[in-house]
Amino acid sequence: MMASIGEFDPLNNIVPATKIEVTVSCSLLKTCPLLNTLHSEVILWPSFNSVSFNAVVVLYVQGIGTKEWMEFGRTEVIDNTLNPNFVRKFFLDFFFEEKQNLRFDVYNVDSRSSNISKFDFLGQTFCTLGEIIGSTGGRLEKSLSNEDGTFTICHKTEVVKNTLNPVWQPFTIAVRALCNGDYDRTVKVDVYDWDRDGSHDFIGEFTTSYRDFSRGQNQFNVYEVLNAKKKGKKKKYINSGTVSTFLISACQTQLNFTVAIDFTASNGNPSQPTSLHYMNPYQMNAYAMALKAVGEIIQDYDSDKLFPAYGFGAKLPPDGKISHAFPLSGDNENPNCVGIEGVLEAYFQGLRTVQLYGPTNFSPVINQVARSAQDVTDGSQYFVLLMITDGVISDMVQTKEAVVNAAALPMSIIIVGVGPAKFDAMEELDGDEVRVSSRGRFAERDIVQFVPFRDYMDQSGNQVLSMARLAKDVLAEIPEQLLGFMKTRGIEPRPAYLTPITVVGQHLSTP
Q1: For residue 81, what pLDDT is reported?
Q2: Under a CB-based contact definition with an 8 Å cutoff, are residues 24 and 40 in contact?
Q3: 20 to 30 Å CA-CA from 392: which of 42, 103, 107, 480?
């Protein structure tokens, strides 16, 4: 792993950064990039037919304020191959709290000029550095052209000769490489009778999904290998044999992101411009800005992109019962929203549905997330709760106790204060100077980060810049808090390894 911490210069206020090494290679099968990080590789799969091809990959990074793409570096040019493996690497400073947008462009160099405009553009892919690092196994697949139902080759086994009952060697593959993180995406397996001259005979196929693989975790799943042509010709045809798969799933530490939004009446009527919840059709309110700013960065580290989202301090229809942890999805059995855009949609729908009321109780939703965190304390998962509020906490005693209890769990709490209120109680929870205590017990870790959003508002009204400043500050402590939990529990860093799969063929028939 080629990761190192940069030097800290207090005079120039240079923030230490983790160095990420990215290596690039190309395999010209389909238009499908694979990104792997921390002594990592980027595999780009554009489609070409000619071998008179001189490849180069150019990496661009996007400025946070300007949004302009700036060239970061280029690989060397590798001549006359469809499968170049580049030696030159990209070394990037990684900041957890920033959204670092990357763009990889692939060119065919048919000129001695260094001017990119004179090269043949072959394709590109976009991602964030956080997506690469946060993806399962440290590998990220971004499909460019085959979301149309076609298939991309993602693995070939070795050839097992002279048997109708082959047992192939176990192999590993990242979930994202297999199905782009979509557990229900169709995975097709083709079985061939290998011929030395390359004219391999098709035996049959079967389809499955990662979710189906997972159901059979630590036991064999059995699939029938079917050949449609044989089935059409032979009335007694049943199958061309079976294939059994044995899956052992493994993953690195995954972040689970939960949102809680203040629906108390002190925010003002959402239909009025003076409200902090005002649903302005032309720009985001402070709640939406805070949610989008933090969520768009942290979602890169949450592999399933399913975020529990709650509201607190509102009366719910139809009976007007007050709730301090109601799912914005409207489904008590499933509080998840799909992506940050899904959370925003559920938030606005909640404003149209519930009655803003009170009081401002924090402890119920903190305890809700803590119950999930206490079930997974082996270092495989870490929980981050974002709470956005406008006012004074009503249940401070209970909230302190909830924070003290949560500090012993794999959990962090981010509190963003919006509006002009005084946030003295929030400062007390943010235990940078004095650790939070309850009934004589002190929190074993500082897990709360509080900031008032007004301190980050750009004076010129630039919402993008305001959001970037906010996210950078509130997320800065999360890596240290995560490591703090791991160290107190003696948990070693989890390697970014993949999914071992054993495949066994049985009674395969010759074509």
Answers
A1: 73
A2: no
A3: 480
- CA triple 48-44-210, angle to 5 deg: 110
Asked whether the beta carbons of 16 and 5 are under 8 A apart, the reply is yes
**Which CATH number does the domain 254-488 belong to among 3.40.630.30, 2.30.29.30, 3.40.50.410, 3.90.79.10?**
3.40.50.410
Rounded Cα distance, 169 and 171, in Å: 6
φ/ψ of residue 220, rounded to 5: -80, 135
List phi, psi (to 5°) of 246: -125, 115
Q: At what angle do helices 286-298 and 339-353 cross, to 10 degrees?
A: 150
- What distance in Å separates the CA atoms of residue 413 and residue 396, rounded to the nearest whole number? 15
Q: Are 410 and 445 in contact (CB under 8 A)?
A: no
State the SS3 of 366-414.
HHHHHHHHCCCCCCCEEEEEEEEECCCCCCHHHHHHHHHHHCCCCEEEE
Which of 317, 423, 291, 311 has the alpha carbon at shortest distance from 368?
311
Among residues 136, 123, 58, the alpha carbon closest in space to that of 90 is found at: 58
CA distance 116 to 138: 30
Secondary structure (3-state) at 363:
helix
Residue in 418, 421, 426, 430 with CA at minimum distance from that of residue 457: 418
CB-side neighbour CA atoms (13 Å) of 281: 0
Q: What is the mean pLDDT of each run of 10 residues along the chain (511 residues)?
A: 32 54 62 36 43 77 81 87 78 84 83 73 79 69 53 77 82 66 79 84 87 64 86 82 70 83 95 93 91 86 87 95 96 93 95 95 97 92 94 92 96 94 84 86 93 87 84 84 89 56 65 58
The C-alpha atoms of residue 464 and residue 421 are separated, in whole angstroms, by 23
**What is the reported pLDDT for 42?**
44
The strand pairing partners of 60, in sequence order, are: 71, 103
**Strand, helix or coil for residue 255:** strand
Was domain 18-141 assigned CATH 3.40.1160.10? no
- Answer for the pair 281, 297: CB distance below 8 angstroms, yes or no: no
Can you tell me the distance from the alpha carbon of 77 to that of 228, in angstroms, rounded to the nearest whole number? 45
Q: What tokens appear for 406 in the block?
A: 């949560």
- By three-state DSSP, how is residue 176 classified? helix
The span from the CA of 236 to the CA of 39, in Å, is 53
CATH 3.40.50.410 location in the chain = 254-488
Q: What is the reported pLDDT for 30?
A: 36
3-state secondary structure of 178: helix
Q: Rounded to an integer, what distance in angstroms lies between the CA atom of residue 59 and that of residue 284?
A: 32
d(CA 369, CA 268): 27
